[in-house]
């Protein structure tokens, strides 16, 4: 497979850097072609502003979605954005690696999403009607590709458990996994999350590296999270609300958007590329 790893940590000698190196080494050992977008090393510009749209008339009002769509259609996006879009199209699998900062991704990675996910590329794709509300949430330009998160956290795993003070890790990562990855079509694999990393000793790192290498070996075969496809029949259009009778007993919130046996219909299947 072709694998793109997008790395967002400012210190290459960090634990994150060591995990990145282990992941890349294992991917190459398995015969995968690998590219790395090291956002801090690249000096990635995170903020969307007028400079992203050189063809925008001077003095014109900046509407980001409209300007983004026009620039994408005209092939007029900036070179750095175009290069990352090309990498996404090249990749069969994409890994986003980052430390969990303030319950989310670092700003530089969010800025990568904001700028690279142009209108017409990652959103605003497909027919929009009262029958089909765009190609998204399981469909779209990046459908058929796999994606996963590699995340480090300072807290204990219990802090991110079902009753943990920080909230369940599945809920904290839902906006990224469902909203950033599944939205444009990726099949999203369960995340690799390392906890209590600030107090990790050598033996702990060895165990962590072993587990990460195993995930890299299984990158092509790990079953994805069974998110419900928007246009798979589970949601009423155009309200995009889950149809009555669906949802496992007791399920609420984000969990409703994961298909599961026993909620009234068989789980949807998402195959590997």
From TrEMBL:
SUPFAM superfamilies: Flavoproteins (SSF52218). Its EC number is 1.6.5.2. The keyword Oxidoreductase applies. It holds the Pfam family Flavodoxin_2. Transmembrane segments: none annotated. Keywords: Oxidoreductase. One of its GO terms (molecular function) is NAD(P)H dehydrogenase (quinone) activity. Coiled coil: none annotated. Residues 253-273 are annotated as: Disordered. Residues 1-203 form the Flavodoxin-like fold domain. Belongs to the NAD(P)H dehydrogenase (quinone) family. PANTHER family: NAD P H OXIDOREDUCTASE-RELATED, NAD(P)H DEHYDROGENASE [QUINONE] 1 ISOFORM 1. This is NAD(P)H dehydrogenase (Quinone). It comes from Methylobacterium goesingense.
């Amino acid at each position: 497979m072709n694998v793109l790893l997008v790395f967002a940590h400012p210190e290459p000698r960090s634990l994150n850097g060591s995990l990145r190196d282990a992941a890349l080494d294992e991917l190459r050992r398995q015969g995968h072609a690998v590219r790395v977008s090291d956002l801090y090393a690249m000096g990635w510009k995170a903020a969307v502003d007028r400079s992203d749209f050189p063809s925008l008339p001077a003095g014109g009002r900046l509407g980001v979605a409209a300007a983004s769509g026009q620039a994408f259609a005209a092939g007029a996006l900036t070179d750095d954005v175009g290069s990352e879009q090309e990498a996404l199209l090249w990749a069969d699998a994409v890994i986003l690696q980052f430390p969990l900062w303030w319950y989310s991704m670092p700003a530089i990675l969010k800025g990568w999403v904001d700028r690279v996910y142009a209108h017409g590329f990652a959103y605003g794709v497909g027919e929009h009607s009262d029958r089909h509300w765009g190609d998204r949430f399981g469909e779209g330009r990046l459908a058929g590709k796999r994606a996963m998160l590699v995340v480090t956290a300072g807290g204990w795993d219990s802090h991110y458990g079902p009753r943990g003070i920080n909230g369940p890790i599945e809920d904290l990562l839902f906006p990224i996994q469902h909203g950033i990855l599944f939205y444009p079509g990726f099949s999203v694999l369960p995340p690799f999350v390392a906890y209590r990393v600030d107090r990790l000793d050598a033996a702990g790192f060895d165990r962590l590296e072993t587990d990460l290498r195993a995930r890299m070996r299984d990158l092509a075969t790990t079953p994805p999270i069974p998110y419900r496809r928007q246009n798979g029949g589970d949601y009423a259009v155009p309200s995009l609300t889950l149809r009555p009778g669906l949802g496992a007993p007791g399920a609420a919130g984000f969990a409703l958007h994961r298909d599961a046996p026993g909620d009234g219909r068989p789980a949807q299947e998402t195959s590997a590329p």
